[in-house]
């Protein structure tokens, strides 16, 4: 056989094709799906932390208590407390104790964020 007919031949090894394409493709798909699941977990965690944090603040309107609750929730979800940024704003009463006040809790983790709003 000469070289040109060997190149044009359909003969080959399925094992080489499987290793070459199957495994490499599966590894890249697995890496992408793991990353996507990690981001989704973090987003769900932020939303739950925001929701429970605002509820805790409405029940006991003390920023120290809110900080403690948020720290415990961050630890429960396996996130690093140093990576979390959060802010609490209340309108029209900045202390969130008057009826009719609206509390807004914003939580950020990298490029992800979540908000929770609750009336007093």
Q: Describe it for me?
A:
The chain is an alpha+beta fold and 120 residues long. It has helices spanning 3-8, 14-59, 63-76, and strands spanning 84-91, 102-109, 112-119. The protein has one domain (14-119). The longest helix is centred in the first third of the chain and has 46 residues, at 14-59. A hairpin with a 2-residue loop joins strand 2 and strand 3 (112-119).
Number of domain modules: 1
* Number of helical elements: 3
- Average of per-residue pLDDT values: 87
Shape: rod-shaped
How much helical structure, as a percent, in the residues?
A: 55-70%
Strand tally is 3
Given helix and strand content, the structural type is alpha+beta
Oligomeric state of this protein: single chain
Strand content: 15-25%
For the biggest sheet, the summary is: 3 strands, antiparallel
**Weakly predicted, low-confidence segments:** none
The SSE order reads HHHEEE
What is the CA-CA span between the terminal residues?
A: 86 Å
Radius of gyration: 26 Å
Query: Main sheet: which strands, in order across?
Result: 1-2-3
Short description:
With 120 residues, the protein is of the alpha+beta class. It is 55% helix and 20% strand. Keywords: Membrane, Transmembrane, Transmembrane helix.
What are the key terms here?
120 residues, 3 strands, 55% helix, alpha+beta, single chain
């Amino acid at each position: 056989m000469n070289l040109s007919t060997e190149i044009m031949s359909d003969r080959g090894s399925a094992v080489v094709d499987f290793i070459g394409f199957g495994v490499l493709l599966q590894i890249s798909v697995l890496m992408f799906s793991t990353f996507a699941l990690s981001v989704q977990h973090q987003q769900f965690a932020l939303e739950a932390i925001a929701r429970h944090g605002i509820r805790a603040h409405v029940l006991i309107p003390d920023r120290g208590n809110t900080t403690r609750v948020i720290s415990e929730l961050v630890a429960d979800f396996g996130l690093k407390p140093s990576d979390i940024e959060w802010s609490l704003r209340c309108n029209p009463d900045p202390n969130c104790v008057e009826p009719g006040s609206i509390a807004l809790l914003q939580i950020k983790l990298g490029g992800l964020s979540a908000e929770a709003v609750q009336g007093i």
